[in-house]
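Fold it.
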Amino acid sequence: MSGIESALYESGIKRIAGVDEAGRGPCAGPLIIAAVILKDPQSTELTRVRDSKTLSEKVREELFEVIVNQALSYSIVEIFPAEIDALGLHKSNLEGMRRAINLLETTPEYVLTDGYAIEGLALPNLAIWKGDQVALTISAASILAKVYRDRIMRAMDTQFPGYGFAKHKGYITAAHTAALKELGVTSIHRKSFANISALLN
C-alpha cells in the first residue's frame, strides 16, 4: 500500500475505494471507469497488482479475476462515445468516477482517485498524481478498467472488421488512420476528437 493508504488503514479507515479510468486517449470506443474496495489490501493475493500499463495482457487478465475475488465491492462504468462528444472528455471522466463510486454496494470511508479530484463528492477523497503507479487500490481499479475496455474493443473488432480494434484498441495509429480513410467513421468513433472531426468535415 502507499503511504496514504497505510496511514488511513492504521487510523481505522478500512473501506478505501480506488478509482481509475481506461480509454481517455483513444479516438474510438468507450471510456471505462472502475472503482474498487479491497477486502484486505495486505493480502498476498494482491502482491502482483501494479499500474495496468506496466503489465502484460495475460497478467492483467489473471489479475482481473484475483481483484474481483478480493474485492469487498467493485463497479465498472462505461461512458459511450456520444456522451463523450456531448460533455467533453474531462467532464465525462469526472461523471464516470461519480457513477462508479455511487454504484459500489458498500459505501467507502475514503476515496482515492488517479490524478483528478472529484468536485462535489460527499465523501472524504484525495486525488493522487500518478496514483495508478503508487496506490494499490487505484492500481487495482486501473486493471479492472483496462481489462474490461480491452474486452470491449476485441468485440468491436468483430463488429467493425478492418479497423484493427483488437490490436490498437481505438488509439490513433497509422493503421487505424488508413482504415478510417478507406472505410470511414463508425458509430464508436468520438466525433469531437480532432482527427475524426477532420474526416467528417
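The chain has a mean pLDDT of 95.
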